[in-house]
Amino acid sequence: MKAAVIIFPGSNRDVDVIDALTAVSGREPALVWHRDTELPDADLIVLPGGFSYGDYLRSGAMAARSPILRTVSARAEAGAAVLGICNGFQILTEAGLLPGVLMANRDLKFVCRDIHLKVEHADTSFTRRYDTGQVIRVPVAHHDGNYFSDPETLARIEGEGQVAFRYCTPEGDIDDAVNPNGSINGIAGVYNEARNVLGLMPHPEDHIDPSQSCSDGRALFESLVEELA
Amino acid sequence: MSNAITSDAAITPEMIAEHGLSDAEYRQAQEILDRDPNITELGIFSVMWSEHCSYKSSKKWLKTLPTTAPWVICGPGENAGVVDIGDGQAAIFKMESHNHPSFIEPYQGAATGVGGILRDVFTMGARPIANLNCLRFGDPEHAKTRHLVGGVVAGIGGYGNCIGVPTVGGECTFHESYNGNILVNAMTVGIADADRIFYSTAAGVGNPVVYVGSKTGRDGIHGATMASAEFDDAAEEKRPTVQVGDPFTEKLLLEACLELMATDAIIAIQDMGAAGLTSSAFEMAGKGGMGVDLDLDHVPQRETGMTPYEIMLSESQERMLMVLKQGHEDEARQIFEKWELDFAIVGRLTDSGRMVVRMNGAVAADLPIAPLANASPEYDRPWTAAAMPEDISPDDVPAPEDCGLDSLTAALGKLLGSPDLASKRWIWDQYDHLVMGRTLQRPGGDAAVVRIPGSQKALALTADCTPRYCAVHPKTGGAQAVAETWRNLSAVGARPLAITDCMNFGSPEKPEIMGQFVECIEGMREACLTLDFPVVSGNVSFYNETNGAAIQPTPAIGAVGVIDDIDTMATIGLKAEGNSLILVGETHGHLGASLYLREIAGRSDGSAPPIDLAAERRNGDFVRQQITEGRAASCHDVSDGGLLVAVAEMALASATSGSDMLGALLHFDDDLPLHATAFGEDQGRYVLEVTPSEAEDLLASAIAKDIPACRIGRCGDNALTINGAETISLAILKRAHEGWLPSYMAG
After folding, report:
1. Which pairing describes strands B580-584 and A146-148: parallel, antiparallel, or unpaired?
2. Strand B495-504, strand B549-550: pairing
3. Is-catalytic flag, A112?
4. Is B736 helix (H, G, I), strand (E, B) or coil?
5. Is the distance from CB of B274 to CB of B329 less than 8 angstroms?
6. Which of A121, B435, B478, B489 has its CA 20 to 30 A from that of A216?
7. Across the interface, do A112 and B428 touch by the CB < 8 Å criterion?
8. Smallest Cβ distance to A9: which of B252, B432, B451?
């Protein structure tokens, strides 16, 4: 699998996802600077976590208007797999590649901790190595992860199976008490309609190896390698 | 261009006093110049000779600390200390205080504290891989405490999370002596190739002096002077002297500097921290015996109409000063332009030995460098030894039942839910402790562990101090702070390498405070020597006083160790039912100055637990060997709160969800009062979890090496049971332990 990771000024989980991609695919991803307008030949385009442009205007808002995003957008429309993690998810919603918005966490505080996620569908390029309904443990680390959308959009993405992951208890129950940020319907990640673009707030790239206390995130990258190799 | 010194106004005694210079220091300045300084020069003398920058009261004593070992590459005197961690790599680290600004403006004060220490580390060529912090707040009941905790934690998180360096550990305690002077001590650890370390010694006449990073504004003027004076009730009027941090710019500065450091362009580099452009220029030139011609017209400025005085003393953040090799200017400029940062050649090195500052065609200051940078005043301040408190016997400390509690386990619950021992999860949940993906042990254990990329090795990191010991017995307290960090590292199986010290005290002009400093250093010195644990960097923060009341002496110690194989490191959580629990080290039931005494008996008398450094070393070396040989299923050092608290912490860390937690059945001897065995804070002790068969081997090996070790029970149930009689469920303990801080902050 050939992957490209877009680096914005302020990206900081680029290292994590580069390490994860390299470990799982055996191949280092290409790095693309935000001012570039061309993308290399790539099966997967990754927008990493961080604070692009300091997130000073609104999380992801400035990065969504950077030159490279027009190219990413065109590739996504042409069917390339695009993965946005945390700030990358915020950028994809700001760019209109994914529905909904990410608001400040319900308690207005940054939250970094392990959470449990329920895999909603195991039939996408990103999740084929999971089982539908499987519960995985991965960390979150964000201040603005509170997913929201208007009722029509919500009904549509729920109806079309575009919800990728939901926050849940270790037993798999969707319970607001374990929702770390107040996201509507416990939504932690969503697909576009064609399901070739995924955005999620949690960090599967930080749970790749048992030494990180858990490797539940690895199967997401293994799914991509299997699908795209 | 005129070479006459601009002298706008005559210097009055009031101006000298406002600049924090004594009459004698001002006379020394006049002698150095052979004339009166102008206002810019007065400002420069003021910051260069401030306690914060000059260490004038502490130098004499700091020199007594051991600073060398075969693995020390660079000790104190540079931006940070450097130790060899093998395989051609080095760890670079330092801890620094940002106390005064954090009390005045907690978010920005704490944030810029993190920004400053990060710069100290990446200035030397290291990529920062972890942050830690030691926080001391006032009495939780004090009106300002909640606001300060919230602001400081948000500020540390706001900066570290954005720049993308994990905040992996530290400590946070409360005491009324910090009501008017909180402590925010921030530590950064970085990694570099051992042959690619950058220093701050300027060299090469004609080489360009280059300014990079943010523009200079009027913020933070006289921060270093503020940090060198006591507070009174009007402290908050000093808010304008607190700088404002911009972690996004710092992230760009970090990446740009590391990119430039991969080339061959840099001769010397120094961050602009306390005392800004003045301090960085004087230090670099002073170390190299050079002169500097500075042209302030070229300094990137955020505001119009700034005077030379303001530009030289501004503490605007996210700035660096470098000396480049001539001919490499364009190469360097391109890198900083790529990262959209200012880059300006603001001066040249000369052989004059003088700092000549020009602006608007006039000479704004002309000062000899050596007397300011290298020959600042040094004081041997009078000091008095601390009065030794009478110690108390375990038999004189009332049992829980005599303190209005039902049982020993009720006392345990109360202790685990007391402010100092309560879980600090509410804090570390707000710190990104996982970014970079290399955090192998997260906050809450004895030491954080961060993997070294591409290897089986890791660094173990901790920061610690027990001020209540330092308050009653400074020498023991100083030794204990060093020993506890050494123990924390040993408890995860790391080889302790070196420490950084962040010395927080009251006014050195008071003999009893100076005495605390001197005796803490003496204790630290002995511990460093016995444990082979040198000091490689540090910082002194005096004048932590408000209205004449000083903080408890707080020599915070940050420590770094190396784990050669991450597969053999030990973690704190209990692992398997039926495993044996072994206590290493001697138990005497010392309750003087203990948390039990304070929280349960409501007293704070007695002395600190004595510390036998030779035993400390033997016990720690033994425990580390058990861990590296793969025998320890879990391990925890015994510190605040004593043995029962230590076992409870191991049980509470055994699983994340309540129903899966693993408890212990403990058997304590009856040769001491039960509460003294349970809560005594004797030093040099560890609890190890091993399989029953390995327990035999371990105890035999301990006997052979003359190490005190005994079985204290086994893992089992989801409760703690003592001597088959008293029992308490882990769910109840967890509620007490996890509940206090969130409910306090919500209050």
Report:
1. unpaired
2. unpaired
3. no
4. helix
5. no
6. B489
7. yes
8. B252
CA distances from residue B574 to A152, B654, B679 in whole angstroms, order as listed: 50, 5, 20
State how beta strands A44-47 and A81-85 pair.
parallel
Domain membership of residue A174 as a residue range: 3-228
State the DSSP string of B292-340: EEEEGGGS-BSSSS--HHHHHH---SSEEEEEEPTT-HHHHHHHHHHTT
How far apart, in whole angstroms, are the C-alpha atoms of residue B353 and residue B499?
34
Q: How far apart are the first and last CA of chain A?
A: 4
Report the CATH number that the domain containing residue A146 is assigned in CATH: 3.40.50.880
Identify whether the C-beta of residue B37 lies closer than 8 Å to the C-beta of residue B46.
Answer: no
Residue type, B709: A
**Crossing angle for the helix pair B511-531 and B613-628, to the nearest 10 degrees:** 40
Contact A141 B434 (CB under 8 A): yes
ipTM: 0.97
Q: Examine the residue annotation and report whether A203 is marked as an active-site residue of this protein.
A: yes
Beta bridge partner(s), residue B686: B584, B637
Domain count, chain A: 1
Report CA B713 to chain centroid distance, whole Å. 36
Reported as a single tens digit per residue, the pLDDT across A118-158 is: 999 999 999 999 999 999 999 999 999 999 999 999 999 99
B336: region left, alpha or beta (phi > 0 left; psi from -120 to 50 alpha): alpha
In angstroms, the CA B730 to CA A30 distance is 49
CB contact under 8 A, A112 and B431: yes
Local structure of residue B553 (DSSP, 8 states): P
pLDDT tens track for A1-26: 999 999 999 999 999 999 999 999 99
